[in-house]
């Protein structure tokens, strides 16, 4: 928390005279154009930050950092510090520039640490101050919280407190240091109401509108290895038989009165795979017995394209769900290709939401999908 130490008084005086004229300091996102994001997994060793084509994105997220589960502060070791510096330095030098975000948590972190952090003012404050320190030290433009997911109604209330106090803190810090306010975003469930594990809870939409610049709604993982009995479209835009869809999720956020421009639609750059029970029954919802090729039933788009051509797979576009699947023998892969991505981005654009993001940037093949999305929703 260096900015609260000795130079504070000096900074306050300078702030009053210089910062007061910079209106940029107070401008909340969005200032212009759609949000076109992508997460960069820091474990993608064959895909360094330098490989990212920044002309296709507006925001790139470093995934992930985790706070200590005791102090709720970030204890960044030397190799991670090097990686963070490399990420921000590399992206700063790129033309055109992109906003550099760091993302906290992720699916593998689990929800418990955030639940414990968010429970009291003091633990929230430790966490918040540490996020700001990391952002400034490593030259990030903003911070993204991937708490997957708040588990109880109390967690949701505390999530609301957290983002309120976070906003107060980044405003204060911007004033003190005369710098643009750090951006604040969060990755959320695909819809505002969550009933996983039979516990109903709802995101604090009012607090989100007031305190976050945007949310990344994770519009994928609707079907996967947790249900091996049937194939599924893991990121279906529509589904005649269910509400577990991207259209339902986005519409639900809007119905819950989230400011539309703060809603960002998730798009997967990976597919999910099953082993068919009977290769002659291969539609969406066909009986399955196990996961298919890939790692634990998942495969990046770039590998799917390879698999399809090496195995001479049958590729089918399904207009009911707006998704694509490929079949080779008993191997079945459901995914998004340029066609489904185009239709989904058109859907999001016509809804006038804030934009879209990809998980994850290293899954594309020769930027085919990212470019299709970018060009479909031109500024
Ligand atoms: C904190 O993390 C450590 C290391 O991952 C783990 O062994 C420990 O059980 C965790 N403590 C709590 C309270 O979750
Ligand atoms: C980032 O790391 C790569 C690979 O280790 C290196 O080639 C590159 O010069 C580094 N870039 C910056 C800006 O630190
Ligand atoms: C989908 O949601 C709507 C409105 O929330 C509800 O009326 C309908 O029964 C749901 N459909 C399914 C298949 O669950």
UniProtKB/TrEMBL annotation:
<dbReference type="GO" id="GO:0005975">
    <property type="term" value="P:carbohydrate metabolic process"/>
</dbReference>
<dbReference type="GO" id="GO:0006032">
    <property type="term" value="P:chitin catabolic process"/>
</dbReference>
<comment type="similarity">
    <text>Belongs to the glycosyl hydrolase 18 family. Chitinase class V subfamily.</text>
</comment>
<protein>
    <submittedName>
        <fullName>Glycoside hydrolase family 18, catalytic domain-containing protein</fullName>
    </submittedName>
</protein>
<keyword id="KW-0326">Glycosidase</keyword>
<dbReference type="InterPro" id="IPR017853">
    <property type="entry name" value="GH"/>
</dbReference>
<dbReference type="InterPro" id="IPR001579">
    <property type="entry name" value="Glyco_hydro_18_chit_AS"/>
</dbReference>
<dbReference type="GO" id="GO:0008061">
    <property type="term" value="F:chitin binding"/>
</dbReference>
<dbReference type="InterPro" id="IPR029070">
    <property type="entry name" value="Chitinase_insertion_sf"/>
</dbReference>
<feature type="signal peptide">
    <location>
        <begin position="1"/>
        <end position="24"/>
    </location>
</feature>
<dbReference type="GO" id="GO:0004568">
    <property type="term" value="F:chitinase activity"/>
</dbReference>
<dbReference type="InterPro" id="IPR001223">
    <property type="entry name" value="Glyco_hydro18_cat"/>
</dbReference>
<feature type="domain" description="GH18">
    <location>
        <begin position="34"/>
        <end position="379"/>
    </location>
</feature>
<keyword id="KW-0325">Glycoprotein</keyword>
<keyword id="KW-0378">Hydrolase</keyword>
<dbReference type="GO" id="GO:0005576">
    <property type="term" value="C:extracellular region"/>
</dbReference>
<keyword id="KW-0732">Signal</keyword>
<dbReference type="InterPro" id="IPR011583">
    <property type="entry name" value="Chitinase_II/V-like_cat"/>
</dbReference>
<dbReference type="Pfam" id="PF00704">
    <property type="entry name" value="Glyco_hydro_18"/>
</dbReference>
<dbReference type="InterPro" id="IPR050314">
    <property type="entry name" value="Glycosyl_Hydrlase_18"/>
</dbReference>
